[in-house]
Amino acid sequence: MSLVMVIEDEEALSMLLSYNLEKEGYEVATVSNGLNAVSEVERLLPSVIILDWMLPEISGVEICKIIRSKPDIKTIPIIMLTAKSQEEDKIKGLSAGADDYVTKPFSVPELMARVKTNMRRAPLFEEKEKTLAFEDIFMDLVERKVKRGDNYLHLSPTEFRLLKMLIREPGKVFSREVLLKSVWGENIFVESRTVDVHIRRLRKSLNKYGPNYIRTVRANGYAIDKNAENDEADAEEED
C-alpha cells in the first residue's frame, strides 16, 4: 500500500485529507509540526507528500527546500497546499522544489487526482530502454540518476520526466500543452507557466556543467538541441 504523508497543522483539514486518501486506498501519515516534518519523511519514506505552505515555526517552502537537498528523499513528489494564489507565490513554491501546487479552497476529487498522478503508478512511456543519452548527458532510467560528464545532477521527479521526454526525441519541439499533458497528466489542471518554471530549473541544473542544450522556441515550446548554446537562457520569461 502506498503511503501519502500529509504535513498540515490544521487538524480539521488534516482529518479531511486523511479520510479521503484512505478512501482511495492509500496509507496515510500526518505531521502537524513543521520542525518534525523532515525527520518523519526520512523515517517513513512516503510515496507522495502533501505539504501546507503555512506551518508554525518553519514554512512549507523551507521544508520543501530541505527535502530537495537530501539525497535519500529529494525525489519524493511534493504537492504544495496553500491559500496563496498569486502567480509569484506559485512560482516561489515551484522554484523551491514542489512538483504541484493546489490553492485553498480546493476540490477534493481534484486533489485526489493530483495525488494519483504524482504517485506515478503507471509509467508515461513503456520503459524498454534502461538508459538515455544526449551528447554528454546520461540518464539511468532504472536508478533514476542523471549525469552530465562526470557530475551527477540533482533533479526533481518532474525535471527528470521533462528531460527524459526531450532526450527521447532530440531536436523535436514540444509545445507547453504537450509537455503538460505528458508530464503532469491529462486530467490535471496546471498552468502553462508551470512548464516554464520547471524548464528554467532543469536548464539551470544542466548548465552548471556544460553549454546550454535546451532551446526555447518562442510561442511554440522547447527542444533539446546541441545547437542551442546561444539560445537566450531565460527566453521563456518573455513568452
What's the CATH class of the largest domain, please? Alpha Beta
**Which structural class should the secondary elements be placed in?**
alpha/beta
Largest sheet: 5 strands, parallel
Number of domains: 2
Shape: globular
What count of helical segments does DSSP give? 8
Tell me the β content.
15-25%
Mean pLDDT: 81
CATH topology grouping of the largest domain: Rossmann fold
Q: How many β-strands, per DSSP? A: 12
Based on the structure given, which CATH architecture of the largest domain is correct? 3-Layer(aba) Sandwich
Distance between the termini: 42 Å
Explain what this protein looks like in three dimensions.
The chain is an alpha/beta fold. It has two domains: 3-119, Response regulator (Rossmann fold); 131-238, Winged helix-like DNA-binding domain superfamily/Winged helix DNA-binding domain (Arc Repressor Mutant, subunit A, Orthogonal Bundle), CATH 1.10.10.10. It has helices spanning 11-23, 34-44, 60-69, 87-95, 108-119, 157-168, 176-184, 192-206; strands at 3-7, 27-31, 48-52, 78-82, 100-103, 131-134, 137-140, 145-148, 151-153, 174-175, 214-217, 221-224. The strands form three sheets. The protein has a five-stranded parallel β-sheet, sandwiched between helices. Strands 6-7-8-9 form a four-stranded antiparallel β-sheet, covered by helices on one side. Helix 6 (157-168) packs across helix 8 and helix 7 (176-184) crosses helix 8. The protein is globular and about 55 Å long. The model is unreliable at 121-127 and 232-239 (pLDDT under 50).
